[in-house]
Protein 1
Amino acid sequence: MVKLQRTAAFLLTIISYAAATLDLPGNYSASSRPNEDGVADVVNVSIELLSIRGVSETKSEMTVDITMHTSWVDARLLEQVTRDTFFVGHIPSIWIPSVQIANSESGSHASNKALLLGKDGLVKFSQKLTTQISCPISLAKYPFDRQACRLQLNSFGYTSVHMVLVWHGTINGDIPTYHPEFSFSYAEQTSENIKTGDGEYSNLFLEVAVSRCPLRVIFRAMLPSILLLAFSYYVTFCHCNFIMINKAAPSANGHHVEETMVAQRVIECTTPDAERSLIIAAINGLIFIVIIFVAQMNFIDSPKSSAVSGLDVWLSFITAIVFVVLWHSVQLYFTQSNKKSSDKINPNDSCYVNKTTNMLKIGIPVVFVIFFVVYCGVYLS
Ligand SMILES: *[C@@H]1O[C@H](CO)[C@@H](O)[C@H](O)[C@H]1NC(C)=O
Ligand SMILES: *[C@@H]1O[C@H](CO)[C@@H](O)[C@H](O)[C@H]1NC(C)=O
């Protein structure tokens, strides 16, 4: 019974919507604005950001679903309805401000429209739009980038002398983003009058920003590269072993000071022999090839841009260091094998290699730490 009543009420509502026709005064003109000869008409605009459908780096655009609410007062429609009247679908042919999205890529597609006319001449018009906003996509900070796109609203044809657009209300909080890598960051509303050749136009801007989640790239490129570098460094520079040696240590025994033998752990570092340095050089060569492979796979997979991205800088740096280590280990191998084959050891060669080894051993971690700090400062800010 209750269900039947509800259905009936629902049907009545639909009928009343469908029957809501407006008898406009004979001298009403839909092509002239409410204050035709007077001050500028003020149109309140509010945007409901429903979702961010997608971000395309290649097309430099963002697709958004919005509902645009505009409201204004049309004094000519005063007392035209006895109560607030809702029109859905069939919009009466009254004056509606031509608010357009100026930077829409392929025109916006309006799917639903609704209009509310008040007894006091207040008109509220809402339409749901799906639109592509074109915006500059900058990948210089990829994968730590944030893309901000500005939706520009203005009135087509009416200069600010005739029509002024005003933001009404603020953007709702968290917006769903249907892009696997991006999430909503912020939305900012601003307004500005822009002068053009044929006058000054009232513009509203809505900046929508999305930020990329860098985790996928970190796990797939940055972390493997850093582990490979660490392995290469370890293999090349850490030939130190903990060994136990017996060492004489003074010990006080009554009035006498005696020397006793004490087992001590010391770190002994050696220069690898020829065979070992060949293995080291081979391992470094392999690591170098793997790192080049990782870098190439990521360059292929990352969005194309002419800018040098954060990922490019990272991978190039790590590749360069691994190359230096490889170069050094090859040099080490040649020095060691010369040492083996000839009885005469060229002291200059050996000295050079040892000096370089020590320099790189300290230099690489220092350079890496400096690079890491600068990198974080530049790309994570
Ligand atoms: C239209 O007609 C009404 C009276 O019928 C009058 O009050 C109003 O001023 C007219 N409006 C215009 C724009 O001529
Ligand atoms: C426009 O918004 C202002 C507040 O921002 C409000 O006072 C005014 O009544 C609104 N006008 C219309 C036509 O909705």
Protein 2
Amino acid sequence: MAAAKDPWLLTPGPLTTSAATKEAMLHDWGSRDAQFIETNARVLRRLLDIAGAAETHVCVPLQGSGTFTVEAALGTLIPPRDGKKDGKALVLINGAYGKRIARILDYAGRSHISLETPEDTPPDLNDLEAALKSDTAITHVVAVYCETTSGILNPIEDIARITAENQRRLIIDAMSAFGALPFDASAIAFDGMMASSNKCLEGVPGMGLAILRRAALEQCQGNAHALSLDLYDQWTAMEKNGQWRFTPPTHVINAFDKALDQFDAEGGAEGRHARYAGNCKILVDGMRGLGFETLLADEVQAPIIVTFKMPADEKFDFQVFYDALGCRGYVIYPGKLTVAPSFRIGCIGQLGASEMQGALKAITDVMKEMGVESGKS
Ligand SMILES: *Cc1c(COP(=O)(O)O)cnc(C)c1O
């Protein structure tokens, strides 16, 4: 686990990473270095395998945080409405990341509409079907797998089935899901899926990855609205010489390769899901024992991040709570809900049962210090 002096990050990212992953960065590599090019190719291959997509899709990486890859994938896959290819997206929104997708499409000048449900409610599948039937201009559906705003699990297989039955293309923001929640290209038809080196794959932050259906990407030349965000150009350039177009995040990729060794050793996405589900259960049971209430019903809670409602007790001061937990070595996260005051505690990263129990003990102590008897909202 991490060096003792680092705090435990119970957040949606950046996350706690293992010592082996961090140690993989203690070198320098040139971008044309044969060993680096080989490591890069291996990482991309491994990511395709994790998605069960090696036969049908390609993996295109991009420098930056996850949002850069979301923005790049949307701009590359969805053509502008210019009388030639005429793209139009339907965005399923139930949180801040869905809203960000709509904002990205606004910036890029892509035609789009949205279907929005409250932050504790998955998208309505009947509404999705009805929208696809009534608006024949829609070419793409864009969905968020785990909406990290609340931690809600959206029904991605059903969304994929309805999208495919209606002959539309699916783009999935699986940033906080890929590597822990089930994802298999043979069960989910999609043109694009975006994730990052950090989050459930437990690499260090700094690059995103898009898994793109090869036959779809081949049609995407000239779609992108920005050179640095053009995944068609990034793909074709990397196919030619194995190199990134612009300065590659060499340390991130070497750390990612090491993180994927640990991912394999843990039993892949199933093993990782089991550890995160264990973390989530310890957290939710323990917090409920202290009176706290979760935003979500257990059936729609993904074992990624949990939203708790703010306690009603006037003696509870979130900033004091946050700072006191930080002093004890546990970093939590403020809420991002529009509906109710809340805070979030993550279950992902290089954390296990003892860290979750340690966090609960710290929370118990801090509540006592504040004179708060119950976390009830
Ligand atoms: C983390 C995350 C992103 C990307 O966020 P960055 O801060 O840009 O890395 C996108 N979508 C979802 C659902 C996420 O959880």
